[in-house]
Protein backbone atom coordinates (compact mmCIF):
# COMPACT_ATOMS: atom_id res chain seq x y z
CA UNK A 1 0.00 0.00 0.00
CA UNK A 2 1.25 3.45 -0.91
CA UNK A 3 0.28 6.70 0.80
CA UNK A 4 -0.06 10.13 -0.77
CA UNK A 5 -0.24 13.64 0.66
CA UNK A 6 -3.47 15.67 0.76
CA UNK A 7 -1.57 18.59 -0.75
CA UNK A 8 -0.29 16.70 -3.73
CA UNK A 9 3.39 17.74 -3.67
CA UNK A 10 5.16 15.35 -1.30
CA UNK A 11 6.57 11.98 -2.40
CA UNK A 12 4.37 8.90 -1.95
CA UNK A 13 5.51 6.66 0.95
CA UNK A 14 4.99 3.07 2.05
CA UNK A 15 3.39 2.13 5.39
CA UNK A 16 6.67 2.02 7.32
CA UNK A 17 7.67 5.50 6.29
CA UNK A 18 4.21 6.91 6.91
CA UNK A 19 4.32 5.47 10.42
CA UNK A 20 7.55 7.37 11.08
CA UNK A 21 6.54 10.56 9.25
CA UNK A 22 4.65 13.46 10.79
CA UNK A 23 3.24 15.95 8.35
CA UNK A 24 4.12 15.40 4.70
CA UNK A 25 6.87 17.69 3.41
CA UNK A 26 4.27 19.82 1.59
CA UNK A 27 2.38 20.40 4.86
CA UNK A 28 -0.34 17.86 3.98
CA UNK A 29 -1.48 14.66 5.69
CA UNK A 30 -0.92 11.16 4.36
CA UNK A 31 -3.86 9.05 3.13
CA UNK A 32 -3.95 5.68 1.31
CA UNK A 33 -3.53 6.02 -2.43
CA UNK A 34 -6.37 3.51 -2.93
CA UNK A 35 -8.79 2.62 -0.17
CA UNK A 36 -9.43 -1.13 0.21
CA UNK A 37 -13.02 -2.25 -0.40
CA UNK A 38 -14.68 -5.35 1.09
CA UNK A 39 -17.69 -7.15 -0.38
CA UNK A 40 -20.86 -7.95 1.54
CA UNK A 41 -19.85 -11.64 1.51
CA UNK A 42 -16.44 -10.88 2.97
CA UNK A 43 -17.80 -8.66 5.73
CA UNK A 44 -20.55 -11.20 6.53
CA UNK A 45 -17.94 -13.91 6.94
CA UNK A 46 -16.31 -11.92 9.77
CA UNK A 47 -19.30 -12.15 12.14
CA UNK A 48 -18.22 -13.63 15.44
CA UNK A 49 -14.50 -12.98 15.10
CA UNK A 50 -12.64 -11.86 18.22
CA UNK A 51 -11.60 -8.20 18.18
CA UNK A 52 -7.96 -8.87 17.31
CA UNK A 53 -8.98 -11.29 14.54
CA UNK A 54 -11.29 -8.73 12.97
CA UNK A 55 -8.56 -6.09 13.36
CA UNK A 56 -6.30 -8.27 11.23
CA UNK A 57 -8.88 -8.57 8.43
CA UNK A 58 -9.64 -4.85 8.36
CA UNK A 59 -6.09 -3.51 8.66
CA UNK A 60 -4.15 -6.05 6.62
CA UNK A 61 -4.49 -4.21 3.29
CA UNK A 62 -3.06 -1.03 4.86
CA UNK A 63 0.15 -2.63 6.10
CA UNK A 64 0.57 -5.03 3.19
CA UNK A 65 4.21 -5.35 2.19
CA UNK A 66 5.55 -3.95 5.49
CA UNK A 67 4.78 -6.63 8.11
CA UNK A 68 4.40 -10.41 7.55
CA UNK A 69 0.94 -11.77 8.46
CA UNK A 70 2.10 -13.95 11.35
CA UNK A 71 3.93 -11.04 13.01
CA UNK A 72 1.04 -8.66 12.51
CA UNK A 73 -1.39 -11.18 14.03
CA UNK A 74 0.82 -11.52 17.08
CA UNK A 75 1.14 -7.76 17.50
CA UNK A 76 -2.66 -7.39 17.35
CA UNK A 77 -3.28 -10.18 19.80
CA UNK A 78 -0.86 -8.61 22.31
CA UNK A 79 -2.30 -5.13 21.77
CA UNK A 80 -5.91 -6.01 22.46
CA UNK A 81 -5.19 -8.42 25.29
CA UNK A 82 -4.32 -5.28 27.31
CA UNK A 83 -8.00 -4.34 27.47
CA UNK A 84 -9.95 -5.02 30.64
CA UNK A 85 -13.15 -6.27 28.99
CA UNK A 86 -13.43 -9.68 27.27
CA UNK A 87 -15.20 -8.07 24.31
CA UNK A 88 -12.56 -5.28 24.10
CA UNK A 89 -15.23 -2.87 22.77
CA UNK A 90 -18.58 -3.96 24.26
CA UNK A 91 -21.93 -2.48 23.17
CA UNK A 92 -24.30 -1.36 25.89
CA UNK A 93 -27.91 -0.65 25.07
CA UNK A 94 -29.32 2.68 26.30
CA UNK A 95 -32.75 2.65 24.68
CA UNK A 96 -34.63 1.07 21.79
CA UNK A 97 -32.15 0.70 18.93
CA UNK A 98 -29.71 3.02 20.71
CA UNK A 99 -26.31 1.77 21.85
CA UNK A 100 -23.08 3.03 23.41
CA UNK A 101 -19.91 1.42 22.09
CA UNK A 102 -17.67 1.39 25.15
CA UNK A 103 -14.19 2.31 23.99
CA UNK A 104 -12.79 2.97 27.45
CA UNK A 105 -11.66 -0.42 28.71
CA UNK A 106 -8.04 0.13 27.68
CA UNK A 107 -5.19 0.92 30.09
CA UNK A 108 -5.87 4.68 30.24
CA UNK A 109 -9.68 4.56 30.04
CA UNK A 110 -10.20 6.46 26.77
CA UNK A 111 -10.61 5.41 23.15
CA UNK A 112 -7.12 6.65 22.28
CA UNK A 113 -5.74 3.39 23.70
CA UNK A 114 -7.10 1.50 20.66
CA UNK A 115 -4.66 3.31 18.42
CA UNK A 116 -1.77 4.16 20.72
CA UNK A 117 -1.37 0.66 22.17
CA UNK A 118 -0.96 -0.51 18.60
CA UNK A 119 1.20 2.40 17.47
CA UNK A 120 3.80 1.77 20.19
CA UNK A 121 4.11 -1.87 19.18
CA UNK A 122 4.25 -1.14 15.46
CA UNK A 123 6.95 1.46 15.99
CA UNK A 124 9.07 -0.87 18.07
CA UNK A 125 8.68 -3.69 15.55
CA UNK A 126 9.69 -1.59 12.58
CA UNK A 127 12.51 0.22 14.40
CA UNK A 128 14.01 -3.09 15.55
CA UNK A 129 13.96 -4.31 11.96
CA UNK A 130 15.69 -1.13 10.76
CA UNK A 131 18.02 -0.98 13.76
CA UNK A 132 16.92 2.60 14.50
CA UNK A 133 15.80 4.59 17.53
CA UNK A 134 13.37 7.50 17.60
CA UNK A 135 12.27 10.22 19.97
CA UNK A 136 8.59 11.05 20.44
CA UNK A 137 7.57 14.50 21.61
CA UNK A 138 3.98 15.42 22.35
CA UNK A 139 1.96 18.01 24.22
CA UNK A 140 -1.11 17.04 26.18
CA UNK A 141 -3.90 18.52 28.21
CA UNK A 142 -4.95 15.03 29.24
CA UNK A 143 -5.93 11.88 27.36
CA UNK A 144 -3.36 11.73 24.57
CA UNK A 145 -0.32 11.95 26.85
CA UNK A 146 -1.24 9.06 29.10
CA UNK A 147 -2.34 6.86 26.20
CA UNK A 148 0.90 7.57 24.32
CA UNK A 149 3.08 6.84 27.36
CA UNK A 150 1.18 3.63 28.09
CA UNK A 151 1.57 2.63 24.45
CA UNK A 152 5.35 3.18 24.47
CA UNK A 153 6.31 2.01 27.95
CA UNK A 154 7.61 -1.35 26.73
CA UNK A 155 9.25 -0.02 23.56
CA UNK A 156 12.97 -0.72 23.36
CA UNK A 157 13.63 1.73 20.54
CA UNK A 158 11.51 4.70 21.55
CA UNK A 159 12.09 7.50 24.07
CA UNK A 160 9.00 9.55 24.80
CA UNK A 161 8.78 13.11 26.13
CA UNK A 162 5.32 14.38 27.02
CA UNK A 163 4.83 18.03 27.96
CA UNK A 164 1.88 18.99 30.12
CA UNK A 165 1.02 22.39 31.66
CA UNK A 166 2.21 22.34 35.28
CA UNK A 167 -0.71 22.36 37.77
CA UNK A 168 -3.27 22.57 34.97
CA UNK A 169 -4.25 18.94 34.43
CA UNK A 170 -6.44 16.99 36.84
CA UNK A 171 -4.76 14.79 39.43
CA UNK A 172 -6.08 11.57 37.87
CA UNK A 173 -4.88 12.61 34.42
CA UNK A 174 -1.46 13.69 35.70
CA UNK A 175 -0.98 10.50 37.68
CA UNK A 176 -1.96 8.37 34.69
CA UNK A 177 1.14 9.80 33.01
CA UNK A 178 3.59 10.31 35.85
CA UNK A 179 3.21 6.97 37.62
CA UNK A 180 4.42 5.04 34.61
CA UNK A 181 8.11 4.68 35.35
CA UNK A 182 10.82 3.75 32.90
CA UNK A 183 14.15 5.06 31.64
CA UNK A 184 12.55 5.86 28.26
CA UNK A 185 9.59 7.79 29.73
CA UNK A 186 9.90 11.49 30.47
CA UNK A 187 7.10 13.65 31.78
CA UNK A 188 7.80 17.37 31.64
CA UNK A 189 5.58 19.75 33.60
CA UNK A 190 5.99 23.08 31.82
CA UNK A 191 5.50 26.31 33.74
CA UNK A 192 3.04 27.56 31.14
CA UNK A 193 -0.29 26.63 29.55
CA UNK A 194 -1.25 23.94 27.03
CA UNK A 195 -0.68 26.24 24.04
CA UNK A 196 2.89 26.92 25.24
CA UNK A 197 3.49 23.17 25.36
CA UNK A 198 2.06 22.65 21.90
CA UNK A 199 4.06 25.53 20.42
CA UNK A 200 7.31 24.10 21.80
CA UNK A 201 6.56 20.69 20.30
CA UNK A 202 5.77 22.29 16.95
CA UNK A 203 8.97 24.35 17.06
CA UNK A 204 10.92 21.17 17.79
CA UNK A 205 9.51 19.48 14.69
CA UNK A 206 10.44 22.53 12.63
CA UNK A 207 14.08 22.61 13.79
CA UNK A 208 15.50 19.24 14.87
CA UNK A 209 19.18 20.10 15.27
CA UNK A 210 19.01 19.43 19.04
CA UNK A 211 18.21 15.77 18.26
CA UNK A 212 21.62 15.18 16.69
CA UNK A 213 20.18 13.13 13.85
CA UNK A 214 17.67 11.07 15.82
CA UNK A 215 14.28 11.03 14.12
CA UNK A 216 11.33 12.78 15.81
CA UNK A 217 7.96 11.01 15.55
CA UNK A 218 4.44 12.42 16.04
CA UNK A 219 1.77 10.61 18.04
CA UNK A 220 -1.11 13.02 17.50
CA UNK A 221 -3.91 12.01 15.18
CA UNK A 222 -2.17 13.28 12.07
CA UNK A 223 -0.34 9.93 12.31
CA UNK A 224 -2.06 7.63 9.81
CA UNK A 225 -1.68 4.52 11.97
CA UNK A 226 -3.98 6.04 14.59
CA UNK A 227 -6.76 6.54 12.06
CA UNK A 228 -6.26 3.03 10.68
CA UNK A 229 -6.67 1.41 14.11
CA UNK A 230 -9.91 3.28 14.72
CA UNK A 231 -11.61 1.94 11.59
CA UNK A 232 -11.78 -1.51 13.18
CA UNK A 233 -14.30 -0.78 15.91
CA UNK A 234 -16.85 0.57 13.45
CA UNK A 235 -16.82 -2.85 11.78
CA UNK A 236 -16.88 -4.59 15.15
CA UNK A 237 -19.95 -2.72 16.38
CA UNK A 238 -21.74 -2.95 13.04
CA UNK A 239 -21.27 -6.72 12.77
CA UNK A 240 -22.88 -7.19 16.19
CA UNK A 241 -25.89 -5.18 15.04
CA UNK A 242 -26.57 -7.12 11.86
CA UNK A 243 -24.31 -5.42 9.28
CA UNK A 244 -23.62 -5.74 6.43
CA UNK A 245 -27.23 -6.78 5.86
CA UNK A 246 -28.57 -4.01 8.10
CA UNK A 247 -27.49 -0.37 7.90
CA UNK A 248 -26.72 1.79 10.89
CA UNK A 249 -25.76 5.27 12.10
CA UNK A 250 -22.98 6.56 14.40
CA UNK A 251 -22.79 9.61 16.64
CA UNK A 252 -19.20 10.58 17.44
CA UNK A 253 -17.93 13.03 20.09
CA UNK A 254 -15.54 15.03 17.94
CA UNK A 255 -12.52 17.30 18.32
CA UNK A 256 -9.79 16.81 15.76
CA UNK A 257 -12.05 14.77 13.43
CA UNK A 258 -9.82 11.68 13.69
CA UNK A 259 -12.34 9.29 15.18
CA UNK A 260 -15.26 10.21 12.92
CA UNK A 261 -13.02 10.26 9.85
CA UNK A 262 -12.26 6.60 10.62
CA UNK A 263 -16.03 5.98 10.46
CA UNK A 264 -16.21 7.70 7.11
CA UNK A 265 -13.44 5.40 5.85
CA UNK A 266 -15.22 2.32 7.22
CA UNK A 267 -18.23 3.33 5.14
CA UNK A 268 -16.15 3.79 2.01
CA UNK A 269 -14.62 0.36 2.64
CA UNK A 270 -18.04 -1.26 2.37
CA UNK A 271 -19.78 -0.89 5.74
CA UNK A 272 -23.42 0.26 5.35
CA UNK A 273 -23.29 3.43 7.49
CA UNK A 274 -25.98 5.84 6.38
CA UNK A 275 -25.46 8.68 8.84
CA UNK A 276 -22.47 10.08 10.75
CA UNK A 277 -23.15 12.70 13.41
CA UNK A 278 -20.43 15.16 14.40
CA UNK A 279 -21.10 15.87 18.08
CA UNK A 280 -19.14 18.87 19.38
CA UNK A 281 -18.95 21.03 22.49
CA UNK A 282 -18.91 24.83 22.16
CA UNK A 283 -15.65 24.56 20.21
CA UNK A 284 -17.82 23.95 17.20
CA UNK A 285 -15.91 24.86 14.05
CA UNK A 286 -17.07 21.56 12.51
CA UNK A 287 -20.71 22.18 13.38
CA UNK A 288 -20.46 25.61 11.76
CA UNK A 289 -19.10 23.96 8.64
CA UNK A 290 -21.73 21.22 8.54
CA UNK A 291 -24.61 23.59 9.21
CA UNK A 292 -23.57 26.59 7.10
CA UNK A 293 -20.37 25.88 5.14
CA UNK A 294 -18.38 28.24 7.44
CA UNK A 295 -15.12 26.70 8.62
CA UNK A 296 -13.79 29.76 10.48
CA UNK A 297 -11.18 29.77 13.23
CA UNK A 298 -12.36 31.20 16.55
CA UNK A 299 -11.10 31.54 20.13
CA UNK A 300 -10.70 28.47 22.31
CA UNK A 301 -13.46 27.97 24.90
CA UNK A 302 -12.54 25.73 27.85
CA UNK A 303 -15.35 23.23 28.49
CA UNK A 304 -16.39 20.30 30.67
CA UNK A 305 -15.30 18.00 27.80
CA UNK A 306 -11.66 19.12 27.56
CA UNK A 307 -10.54 16.41 25.13
CA UNK A 308 -12.66 18.10 22.47
CA UNK A 309 -11.43 21.66 23.15
CA UNK A 310 -9.91 22.60 19.79
CA UNK A 311 -9.85 25.62 17.49
CA UNK A 312 -9.27 23.73 14.21
CA UNK A 313 -9.72 20.04 13.39
CA UNK A 314 -6.54 18.74 11.81
CA UNK A 315 -8.02 15.61 10.20
CA UNK A 316 -10.77 17.54 8.45
CA UNK A 317 -8.21 18.14 5.71
CA UNK A 318 -8.39 14.43 4.87
CA UNK A 319 -12.13 14.70 4.20
CA UNK A 320 -11.66 17.88 2.15
CA UNK A 321 -9.17 16.00 -0.01
CA UNK A 322 -11.82 13.45 -1.03
CA UNK A 323 -14.41 16.17 -1.41
CA UNK A 324 -12.20 17.90 -3.99
CA UNK A 325 -11.76 14.81 -6.11
CA UNK A 326 -8.41 14.07 -4.40
CA UNK A 327 -6.88 17.10 -6.09
CA UNK A 328 -4.05 18.09 -3.72
CA UNK A 329 -3.45 21.43 -5.37
CA UNK A 330 -7.03 22.55 -4.66
CA UNK A 331 -6.59 21.50 -1.02
CA UNK A 332 -3.26 23.34 -0.78
CA UNK A 333 -5.00 26.47 -2.10
CA UNK A 334 -7.83 26.18 0.46
CA UNK A 335 -5.34 25.95 3.31
CA UNK A 336 -3.06 28.71 2.04
CA UNK A 337 -6.13 30.93 2.09
CA UNK A 338 -7.21 29.62 5.50
CA UNK A 339 -3.80 30.47 6.90
CA UNK A 340 -4.18 34.05 5.70
CA UNK A 341 -7.82 34.67 6.57
CA UNK A 342 -8.77 32.01 9.15
CA UNK A 343 -11.77 31.17 6.94
CA UNK A 344 -12.59 28.29 4.62
CA UNK A 345 -15.60 27.60 2.37
CA UNK A 346 -16.20 24.92 -0.23
CA UNK A 347 -18.32 25.07 -3.38
CA UNK A 348 -22.05 24.52 -2.73
CA UNK A 349 -22.26 21.23 -4.58
CA UNK A 350 -19.35 19.81 -2.60
CA UNK A 351 -20.90 20.97 0.65
CA UNK A 352 -24.23 19.35 -0.24
CA UNK A 353 -22.33 16.14 -0.94
CA UNK A 354 -20.93 16.14 2.64
CA UNK A 355 -24.38 16.78 4.05
CA UNK A 356 -25.76 13.61 2.49
CA UNK A 357 -23.82 11.62 5.09
CA UNK A 358 -22.92 14.01 7.94
CA UNK A 359 -25.10 15.85 10.45
CA UNK A 360 -23.88 17.82 13.44
CA UNK A 361 -24.81 19.41 16.75
CA UNK A 362 -23.17 21.74 19.29
CA UNK A 363 -23.82 20.81 22.90
CA UNK A 364 -23.24 23.32 25.73
CA UNK A 365 -21.79 22.43 29.14
CA UNK A 366 -25.26 22.78 30.63
CA UNK A 367 -26.79 20.41 28.08
CA UNK A 368 -23.90 18.01 28.65
CA UNK A 369 -24.75 17.82 32.35
CA UNK A 370 -28.47 17.51 31.59
CA UNK A 371 -27.73 14.57 29.34
CA UNK A 372 -25.55 12.84 31.93
CA UNK A 373 -28.45 13.23 34.40
CA UNK A 374 -31.02 12.05 31.84
CA UNK A 375 -29.06 8.90 30.93
CA UNK A 376 -28.53 8.18 34.62
CA UNK A 377 -32.25 8.48 35.31
CA UNK A 378 -33.16 6.26 32.40
CA UNK A 379 -30.54 3.54 32.81
CA UNK A 380 -28.60 3.97 36.11
CA UNK A 381 -25.50 4.23 33.93
CA UNK A 382 -23.09 7.15 34.23
CA UNK A 383 -21.64 8.41 30.96
CA UNK A 384 -18.67 10.76 30.75
CA UNK A 385 -19.18 14.31 29.40
CA UNK A 386 -17.75 13.52 25.94
CA UNK A 387 -20.01 10.51 25.52
CA UNK A 388 -22.96 12.56 26.80
CA UNK A 389 -22.43 15.01 23.95
CA UNK A 390 -22.62 12.09 21.56
CA UNK A 391 -25.86 10.89 23.18
CA UNK A 392 -27.54 14.28 22.91
CA UNK A 393 -26.48 14.72 19.29
CA UNK A 394 -27.73 11.22 18.46
CA UNK A 395 -31.12 11.96 19.95
CA UNK A 396 -31.48 15.33 18.19
CA UNK A 397 -30.10 14.48 14.77
CA UNK A 398 -31.26 10.93 14.21
CA UNK A 399 -32.78 10.45 10.75
CA UNK A 400 -34.38 7.04 11.20
CA UNK A 401 -35.65 5.29 14.31
CA UNK A 402 -35.61 1.99 12.44
CA UNK A 403 -31.83 1.90 12.15
CA UNK A 404 -29.50 1.16 15.06
CA UNK A 405 -27.78 4.28 16.39
CA UNK A 406 -24.35 3.72 17.93
CA UNK A 407 -22.80 6.43 20.11
CA UNK A 408 -19.06 6.12 20.59
CA UNK A 409 -18.34 6.03 24.34
CA UNK A 410 -14.97 7.75 24.23
CA UNK A 411 -13.97 7.90 27.91
CA UNK A 412 -14.69 6.35 31.29
CA UNK A 413 -16.66 8.67 33.59
CA UNK A 414 -14.12 8.30 36.41
CA UNK A 415 -11.76 10.51 34.37
CA UNK A 416 -14.13 13.48 34.43
CA UNK A 417 -15.65 13.70 37.92
CA UNK A 418 -16.35 17.45 37.69
CA UNK A 419 -19.01 17.12 34.99
CA UNK A 420 -20.58 14.09 36.65
CA UNK A 421 -20.83 15.98 39.93
CA UNK A 422 -22.30 19.05 38.22
CA UNK A 423 -24.90 16.79 36.64
CA UNK A 424 -26.06 15.95 40.16
CA UNK A 425 -25.15 12.28 39.90
CA UNK A 426 -24.06 11.15 43.34
CA UNK A 427 -23.29 7.52 42.58
CA UNK A 428 -19.63 6.99 43.47
CA UNK A 429 -17.55 5.80 40.52
CA UNK A 430 -14.61 3.57 41.35
CA UNK A 431 -11.35 3.40 39.44
CA UNK A 432 -11.12 0.09 37.58
CA UNK A 433 -8.99 -2.60 39.24
CA UNK A 434 -5.81 -1.98 37.31
CA UNK A 435 -5.79 1.66 38.45
CA UNK A 436 -7.24 1.17 41.94
CA UNK A 437 -4.10 2.34 43.75
CA UNK A 438 -3.35 5.18 41.31
CA UNK A 439 -3.49 7.84 44.02
CA UNK A 440 -0.88 6.00 46.11
CA UNK A 441 1.63 5.26 43.35
CA UNK A 442 5.02 6.95 43.06
CA UNK A 443 5.13 9.80 40.55
CA UNK A 444 8.04 10.94 38.48
CA UNK A 445 8.16 14.16 36.48
CA UNK A 446 10.43 17.13 35.88
CA UNK A 447 9.28 20.74 36.19
CA UNK A 448 10.88 22.97 33.57
CA UNK A 449 10.50 26.66 32.70
CA UNK A 450 8.49 27.72 29.66
CA UNK A 451 11.61 28.06 27.49
CA UNK A 452 12.22 26.15 24.29
CA UNK A 453 16.02 25.96 24.77
CA UNK A 454 15.62 24.37 28.22
CA UNK A 455 13.13 21.80 26.97
CA UNK A 456 15.29 20.85 24.00
CA UNK A 457 18.42 20.64 26.16
CA UNK A 458 16.53 18.23 28.43
CA UNK A 459 15.46 16.03 25.51
CA UNK A 460 18.98 16.03 24.15
CA UNK A 461 20.45 15.09 27.53
CA UNK A 462 18.10 12.18 28.30
CA UNK A 463 16.86 11.06 24.86
CA UNK A 464 18.68 7.72 24.70
CA UNK A 465 17.23 5.72 27.56
CA UNK A 466 18.15 8.40 30.06
CA UNK A 467 21.53 9.08 28.47
CA UNK A 468 22.56 11.86 26.05
CA UNK A 469 21.63 11.56 22.39
C1 LIG B 1 -9.55 12.67 21.79
C2 LIG B 1 -10.93 12.56 22.34
C3 LIG B 1 -12.08 12.93 21.59
C4 LIG B 1 -11.99 13.56 20.22
O1 LIG B 1 -11.54 12.69 19.23
P1 LIG B 1 -11.02 13.26 17.81
O2 LIG B 1 -10.47 12.10 17.11
O3 LIG B 1 -9.97 14.30 18.15
O4 LIG B 1 -12.19 13.88 17.12
C5 LIG B 1 -13.33 12.71 22.16
N1 LIG B 1 -13.46 12.20 23.41
C6 LIG B 1 -12.39 11.84 24.16
C7 LIG B 1 -12.61 11.30 25.51
C8 LIG B 1 -11.09 12.00 23.65
O5 LIG B 1 -10.03 11.66 24.41
Question: What are the SSEs and their pairings?
Answer:
Blueprint: E1 2-5, E2 13-14, H1 15-20, E3 30-32, H2 40-44, H3 51-63, H4 69-80, E4 91-95, E5 98-102, H5 112-130, E6 134-139, H6 143-152, E7 158-165, H7 171-178, E8 185-190, H8 194-206, E9 215-217, H9 224-240, E10 248-253, H10 258-268, E11 273-280, H11 285-292, E12 295-296, H12 316-323, H13 328-341, E13 343-344, H14 348-357, E14 358-362, H15 365-379, H16 385-397, E15 404-409, H17 417-422, E16 446-448, H18 452-462
Parallel strand pairs: 5-15, 6-7, 6-9, 7-8, 8-16, 10-11, 10-15, 11-14
Antiparallel strand pairs: 1-2, 1-3, 4-5, 12-13
Pyridoxal-5'-phosphate (PLP) binds next to helix 10.
Which key features would you list for this structure?
about 475 residues, alpha/beta, six-stranded mixed beta sheet, five-stranded parallel beta sheet
Q: Order of strands across the widest beta sheet?
A: 4-5-15-10-11-14
**Which architecture of the domain at 85-107 and 225-422 per CATH?**
3-Layer(aba) Sandwich
Mean of all residue-level pLDDT scores: 96
Q: What is the count of DSSP helices, taking H or I runs of 4+ residues?
A: 18
Q: Beta-strand percentage?
A: 15-25%
Q: Unreliable runs, pLDDT <50, ≥5 residues?
A: none
CATH fold-type name of the domain at 85-107 and 225-422: Rossmann fold
- List the ions, cofactors and other small molecules found in this model: pyridoxal-5'-phosphate
Amino acid sequence: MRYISTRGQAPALNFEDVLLAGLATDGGLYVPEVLPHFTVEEISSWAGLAYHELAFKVMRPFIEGSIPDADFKQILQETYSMFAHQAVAPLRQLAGNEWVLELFHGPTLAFKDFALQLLGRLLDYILAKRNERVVIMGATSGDTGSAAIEGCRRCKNVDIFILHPHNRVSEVQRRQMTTILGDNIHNIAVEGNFDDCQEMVKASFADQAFLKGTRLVAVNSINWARIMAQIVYYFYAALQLGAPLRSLAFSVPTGNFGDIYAGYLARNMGLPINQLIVATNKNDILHRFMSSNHYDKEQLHPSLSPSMDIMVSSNFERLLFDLHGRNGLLVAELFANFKKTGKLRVADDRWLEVRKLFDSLTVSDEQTCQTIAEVYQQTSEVVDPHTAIGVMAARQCRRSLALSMVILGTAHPVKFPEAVLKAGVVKPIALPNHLANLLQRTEHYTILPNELAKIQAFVSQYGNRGKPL
